[in-house]
């Protein structure tokens, strides 16, 4: 066994406990993240901080000898750009694939509205439930932000009848599940390791499925913006080990 292979084995054992594995992360900070605005499917660019975060993720993966075979992103620019920046830090040009099924939760009429407005109207607890509850739909609001018109909204047939009502996390899971079952899971079972660059609530619903978290306990499952998650699964598609890598 040469030295490079020993290093590879060391890091695989350190971060993973199964040959079926992947890394998942949230995109870097976007402009609306910075200003605490419900972003959803609005196509918002990264801030300078968000660019730095994505670059940092790529450097950490390289230093940890965790080189993905393929990068999967959502169809939103903040996810795609983050994936490109991660790839730029790695030695190889890595194949990439995008899917709208990995998009963030659509917030309906809340898209483009500041969280402070919702807190003032409904209170802090209600606002947190909007963000964390598995089954709750976003409330309908009339305070349409002018900023919403400055950025394109990603559109497809799936979302066309949800532009006002938005999605619950349960709905996000149901539209993510076919992509997991038909694309991501078979890819992982082939002993390829993907990097999934997506969005906070998309990560949360996917991990709910892999960890068998109940609907009632979902509200307690958090995913830190400043982490990448190394996930080992079994051949049934359930998580057997997870390890966080903090990027700050």
Q: In terms of topology, how is this protein built?
A:
Elements: H1 3-15, E1 20-26, H2 31-34, H3 48-63, E2 70-73, H4 77-88, E3 95-98, H5 115-122, H6 124-132, H7 169-189, E4 194-198, H8 200-211, E5 227-233, E6 239-246
Parallel strand pairs: 1-4, 2-3, 2-4
Antiparallel strand pairs: 1-5, 5-6
Query: What is the level 1 CATH name?
Result: Alpha Beta
List the uncertain runs: none
Mean pLDDT, to the nearest integer, reads 92
How many runs of DSSP E, i.e. beta strands? 6
Overall body shape: globular
Structural class: alpha/beta
Name of the CATH superfamily? Phosphoglycerate mutase-like
The major beta sheet can be summarized as: 6 strands, mixed
Q: Helix fraction? A: 25-40%
Strand content: 5-15%
Through-space gap between termini: 34 Å
Q: Output the radius of gyration.
A: 18 Å
Q: What's the CATH topology label?
A: Rossmann fold
Walk me through what this model shows:
The chain has 248 residues and is of the alpha/beta class. The chain has one domain: Phosphoglycerate mutase-like (Rossmann fold), CATH 3.40.50.1240. It contains eight helices and six strands, in the order H-E-H-H-E-H-E-H-H-H-E-H-E-E. It has helices spanning 3-15, 31-34, 48-63, 77-88, 115-122, 124-132, 169-189, 200-211, and strands at 20-26, 70-73, 95-98, 194-198, 227-233, 239-246. It has a six-stranded mixed sheet. A hairpin with a 5-residue loop joins strand 5 (227-233) and strand 6. Helix 5 crosses helix 6. The protein starts with a helix and ends with a strand. The relative contact order is 0.20.
């Amino acid at each position: 066994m040469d030295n490079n292979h020993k290093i590879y084995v060391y890091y695989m054992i350190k971060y993973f406990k199964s040959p079926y594995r992947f890394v998942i992360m949230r995109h870097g900070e976007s402009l609306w993240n910075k200003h605490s605005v419900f972003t959803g499917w609005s196509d918002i660019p990264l801030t300078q901080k968000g660019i730095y975060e994505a670059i940092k993720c790529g450097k950490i993966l390289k230093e940890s000898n965790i080189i993905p075979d393929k990068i999967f992103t959502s169809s939103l620019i903040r996810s795609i750009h983050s994936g490109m920046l991660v790839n730029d830090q790695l030695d190889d040009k890595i194949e990439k694939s995008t899917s709208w099924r990995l998009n963030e939760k659509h917030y309906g009429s809340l898209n483009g509205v500041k969280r402070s407005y919702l807190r003032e109207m409904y209170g802090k607890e209600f606002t947190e439930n909007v963000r964390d509850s598995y089954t709750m739909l976003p409330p309908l609001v009339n305070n349409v932000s002018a900023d919403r018109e400055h950025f394109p909204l990603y559109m497809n047939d799936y979302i066309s009848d949800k532009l006002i009502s938005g999605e619950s996390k349960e709905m996000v899971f149901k539209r993510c599940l076919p992509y997991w079952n038909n694309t991501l899971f078979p890819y992982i079972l082939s002993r390829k390791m993907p990097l999934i660059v997506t969005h906070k609530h998309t990560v949360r619903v996917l991990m709910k499925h892999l960890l068998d978290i109940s609907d009632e306990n979902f509200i307690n499952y958090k995913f830190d913006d400043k982490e990448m998650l190394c996930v080992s699964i079994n051949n049934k598609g359930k998580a057997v080990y997870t390890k966080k890598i903090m990027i700050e």
